[in-house]
Hints:
Radius of gyration: 22 Å
Number of domains: 2
Strand order of the largest sheet: 1-2-4-5-3-6
CATH architecture of the largest domain: 2-Layer Sandwich
Shape: elongated
CATH superfamily of the largest domain: RraB-like
Largest sheet: 6 strands, antiparallel
Structural class: alpha+beta
Amino acid sequence: MGKQWDYFHRTTERQEHMSVLVDASYSGTAPLPGFSRLLSVVVNLYAIASDKKERENAQSRLGLLERRLDALFSERLQAVYIGRINTETRLEFYYYAKPGGEPHRRLAESVLEAYPTYRWIASERDDADWTFYAYLRPNEIEKLYAKNNILLQSLSQKGDRLDIARDVFHWLRFGSSENMRNAADSAKRLGYSVVNSDLDADKPTYQHTLIISKKHSLGVDAMNDSVKELYDLTNTFAGKYEGWGTDLRQKLWRKLRNGMSGRRIALAGLLLLAAVLIAVPLLMAKYI
């Protein structure tokens, strides 16, 4: 089974900010029969944050630690790595394994002895129903955040300068013209401009499409905030948030190499991405 990583940001009820990486390939099969042991290894990041040399090397060292733990637990315990949580103060790795076998703390210790300055703890509990995996899985808005990360990563790989402000276009769909007009008025009050509206009578539902735009950079926080307010707006008017697109803003050298001057990436966008398998690197998140 191939890995299908969802990566997104979450704010808990206690207002703790975390980045979550979870393997979505188990979403249709969880819980796996027999894999009832939930294993965790939690690394305290305080020591890393306070040491300049550790901060400089943290990305590569923590990525290597992640891969070593995954490989060792897979080989010795036949455990499956389901994901991680990253906060400002800790990094948590999670796995499911069958009962019995070696204590995973002992295995983790054999890896972490190469990291003598790191404080860490290993724990396990029974979770035959995979309730913790369900907790890791994204809700509807977090699924959009995950797709934001995929699209932004794709733009960055194409040489886009994400810090440059540009018009970002959003597609919203509604079941009636009245709901669409009311949504358009609300979007204007939020600072958006109406670009176009359309009727597609061939669609069985959500026949009315509204296209709006707003100028800003493509930072992750900015995009997530924009998508969240428009997701809430469409829900208010019984609509559906469809996705976003923008112009590609490349560095000059890449423009010259590609012979292009700002190609439009107009993906109605997230639906298209949802159907594409993109391998998300384990080092996608910044740890510090």
